[in-house]
Amino acid sequence: MLKTILAAFAMCAWLGASAAAQTSERGQAASPPSAAVGQIEIASWLAGRWVGEGLGGVIEETWSSAAGGQMVGHFRLVRDGAPEFYELMLLDVTEAGLRLRLKHFNPDFTGWEEKDGWHSFEPVSASANELAFQGLRLRRISDTEAEFVVTIRYPDGAREQILRLTRAPL
User: Fold this and answer.
1) pTM of this prediction?
2) Would the CA dihedral through 6, 147, 71, 59 be positive or negative?
3) Contact 64, 90 (CB under 8 A)
4) Closest CA to 169 of 52, 63, 49
């Protein structure tokens, strides 16, 4: 049952693909368009470490500050003192707006998605206090509180899971 729930979560999970870094012949990321750098700044409130309870355990999410039109983050779910799964996330900018992509990993770091695959949350809207994606909403309640709502598909239908988080020291 737990694997079914986690697999369902994987199907709906966090974040989206972006104006992914274009590479030059040297393999270095090309500079993002200045519009991308400006748009990513609306998500700057995410930067830092967030902790809370949800999905039957303790959740932790950490985000870097924006650089080059992107933010990177990671998520961890811990149940009964042991990690259940991890996510590596990328928030970037597409022509449609901010997008979130993520990959899931088991505690032994084996991936859920194919090598070149990820789960993408496509943009819906972005404001100073809320980032909305298809199937995911990240809302700042205050400088120290946030609420993330993810739609998870279960065998009997889709349901929203509400994750309430508090800013924590690194």
Assistant:
1) 0.78
2) negative
3) no
4) 49
* Cα gap 28→48, rounded to integer Å: 26
Question: What would the pLDDT profile of 13-61 be if each residue is shown by its tens digit?
Answer: 333 322 333 333 334 444 444 445 459 999 999 999 999 999 999 999 9
Structure tokens belonging to residue 117? 């695959």
Whole-number Å distance between alpha carbons of 24 and 12: 33
Does an H or E element contain 123, and which? strand 123-126
Domains annotated for the chain, with CATH where assigned, are 2-17+34-168 (2.40.128)
What's the CA gap between 77 and 75, in Å, rounded? 7
Name the token pair of 116.
Answer: 């070149």
> Which tokens go with 57?
């355990």
Cβ burial, residue 43 (10 Å; 0-12/13-18/19+): buried
